[in-house]
Every structure is written in structure tokens, then in C-alpha cells.
Amino acid sequence: MHSAVIHLRTLLQPVVHILDPLPYSNVSGIVRVSVTAGASLGTTLSRIELYLDDGKIQGLQALSSPALLTWNTTSVNDGPHYLSARATDAEGNQGSSAGVAIWVQNGGFCGCSSDAGGWESLALFGLLAAIRRRKR
């Protein structure tokens, strides 16, 4: 009688979440981005990368979780953006976080009327979210 041992492992996409900044935050200057990620059993986390509006932010990556990344927001235009993170495990599987809507404001002028109290920004975020949902 012959016997064989077969090792099976299920590899799921890594799970990744942005903890900070919170959705709909106004950010400026140097911002700390807090990210947590995990890989499935049988593999390890390889890297975490930060994305803005679906484009990778060069130089912002970590090799372990939790990660605290320092982002200079002056490298992008003021206005609404989506921040997300992508985790990759040792097997090459990738998982992405949900997008976090943020407002970058480094120029000091948001384009809002002086007495509106920020309602224009809130309306713009709602419109941006509706457009993003429609793309899916």
C-alpha cells in the first residue's frame, strides 16, 4: 500500500484598511497615513503601497503591518482625492482597501463662498462618491 501526503493551502487576497486619515478629512502639508493589512494563512505580507486616485504614490510603501506612512500632500493639486492602499503577499496576491475620500488644501483657498460654512465641499464629495459608484 502506498500513501501520499498532499498539502493544500488556500490563499486569499490580503486584507488592507486605511485607519487614518478618516473619510472626508481635510489634509495639508505632511500627513501621517496609518494602514493595517494581513495575509492569509500559509503566506506572509510582502508590502503595502499607498495610492492616490488609482495612481501609486512613489516612495510610499511599507514591508509590514501596521504601517505608518508619511505623505507630503503638497505634491498633488488641492481638491478632492481618493486615498487607498494595496497589500501584496509573498505569493503575489494583492488586495486593495476601500477608497478614502479626502480634501487636500494647501493653497489656503478652497473656492468656497465665505459664508457657506463648507457646504460646497460636502456637496462636491457627494457628487464625487456618486460618480465613483457609477463607474463600478
Give the topology.
Elements: E1 15-20, E2 25-27, E3 30-38, E4 45-52, E5 55-62, E6 67-72, E7 79-89, E8 94-96, E9 100-104, H1 119-135
Parallel strand pairs: 2-9
Antiparallel strand pairs: 1-3, 3-6, 4-5, 4-7, 7-8, 7-9
Explain this structure to me?
The protein has 136 residues and is mainly beta. The protein has one domain: Sandwich (Immunoglobulin-like), CATH 2.60.40. Helix content is 12%, strand content 43%. The protein has 1 helix and 9 strands, in the order E-E-E-E-E-E-E-E-E-H. The chain has one helix at residues 119-135, and strands at 15-20, 25-27, 30-38, 45-52, 55-62, 67-72, 79-89, 94-96, 100-104. Strands 2, 4, 5, 7, 8 and 9 form a 6-stranded mixed sheet that branches. A 3-stranded antiparallel sheet has the order 1-3-6, with no helix packed on it. Strand 4 and strand 5 form a beta hairpin. The chain starts with 14 loop residues before the first strand and ends with a helix.
Short summary:
With 136 residues, the protein is mainly β. 12% of the residues lie in helices and 43% in strands.
Keywords for this entry:
Immunoglobulin-like, mainly beta, 1 helix, 136 residues, elongated, 3-stranded antiparallel sheet, 12% helix, 6-stranded mixed sheet, single chain
Shape: elongated
Secondary structure tally: strands: 9
CATH architecture group name: Sandwich
- CATH superfamily assignment? Immunoglobulins
**Oligomeric form:** single chain
Beta-strand proportion: 35-45%
Which bin fits the share of residues in helices?
10-25%
SSE order, as H and E? EEEEEEEEEH
End-to-end span in angstroms? 55 Å
